[in-house]
Amino acid sequence: MKRILLIGGFVVICSTVFGQQPNLSNSTKPVKPAPDKPLDGYYKKSNILDAKVTPYANLREADVMYSKRVWREIDLRDKMNRAYASPKGRLIDVIMSAVTAGELTAYDALSTKDDPNGDEFTTILKPEQAMSKFADSVVVPEFDANGNQTGSHIQAGEFNPDSVVKFRIKEDWIFDKQRSIFEPRIIGIAPLVKIKAAGQDLGEQPAFWIYFPEARQIFVTKEVVNRANDATGLSYDDIFMKRIFASYIVKESNPDDLRIKDYAQGIDKLYESERVKKELVDYEHDLWSY
Predict the structure, then answer these.
(1) Partners of residue 68 on adjacent β-strands
(2) Quick one: how many helices (H) and strands (E) in the chain?
(3) pTM above 0.85, yes or no
């Protein structure tokens, strides 16, 4: 009789144990609900999150043998630049998240007497001012307690990140005779938006400018999505520093401060852009020719 009772008790205990939650780790202890979100994968990605910016080499004015400033544009619709427009990590989302959080400063791109081109980082924009640059303004009516319209006010519309398809880059090409290196250094980045005034299309203009040395602190911790490999380990800082993007030049420094489209039209703008690009390459080649 005792043997029958022992067997019955053992069966009840076993049924209780196996009736608990699945034990995926083969542990002998009962499984309890995890308080945190489970790890999405089999290893924790922390290399980019903990990454630090690699500083530029020190540069003295006395060592700058040659300098040329150029402005170029990156078109996200180009196949080479699809990573910048990935829904998993758009460049514009990275910038706007940092701007709205107060981690990154946006500078007004409007031209002034002291800043004709609007790209010298003169006037700081508030986060809400920077956000309003992307959305079309709408008129919102105002009503009183009785439902009668008493007035109206202008309010910014909803921001659509997919509407930003181009970025403008301002950079200096510098030959450092101390290190014998000819290299580009990006100064600023500006998302481009389409501007309309009085019913006329004024083309694409910078919404605001971001100071690149400041933005590097944000870019270095933001991973870039790669179609070929999920473990590339590349951040936005990496692809800018390694020049992993396709672009075309829209302006070079000149005495008349002219853009390429001011003196070239149609296909000639592309030819002029390639001429400026080739001129920079030829300068470096000529340094070492005999």
Answers:
(1) 173
(2) 7, 10
(3) no
Share the mean pLDDT of the chain.
85
133 phi and psi angles, rounded to 5 deg? -70, -20
Residue 117: partners with Cβ closer than 8 Å, 6 or more residues away: 111, 257
SS3 call for 154: strand
Tokens of 56: 């530029």
Q: Cα(70)–Cα(276) distance, rounded to whole angstroms?
A: 9
Distance, CA of 230 to CA of 44 (rounded, Å): 13
Per residue in 80-98, pLDDT (tens digit) is 999 999 988 899 999 999 9
DSSP string for 78-126: SGGGGGGG-TTS-HHHHHHHHHHTTSS-EEE----SS-TTS-S--SEEP
Kindly list the domain boundaries of the chain, sorted by start residue. Answer: 70-124+162-287
Indicate if the pLDDT at residue 48 is higher than 90: no
Asked if residue 100 lies in contact with residue 127, where contact means CB atoms within 8 angstroms, the answer is yes
Q: Rounded distance, CA 137 to CA 147, Å?
A: 24
DSSP type of residue 58:
P
- Give the helix/strand (H/E) hosting 276: helix 267-287
Q: Which residue pairs from 112-120 have beta carbons closer than 8 angstroms and sit at least 24 positions apart in sequence?
A: 116/257, 117/257, 118/206, 118/209, 119/170, 119/188, 119/190, 119/206, 119/209
Q: 276: how many CB neighbours lie within 10 A of its CB?
A: 17
Q: How far is CA 279 from each of CA 74, 173, 241, 253, 266, rounded to the nearest angstrom?
A: 20, 11, 21, 13, 21
Distance of alpha carbon 96 from alpha carbon 103, whole angstroms: 10
> Which amino acid type is present at position 183?
E
Beta bridge partners of 173: 68, 184
Backbone angles phi, psi at 95, to 5 degrees: -65, -50
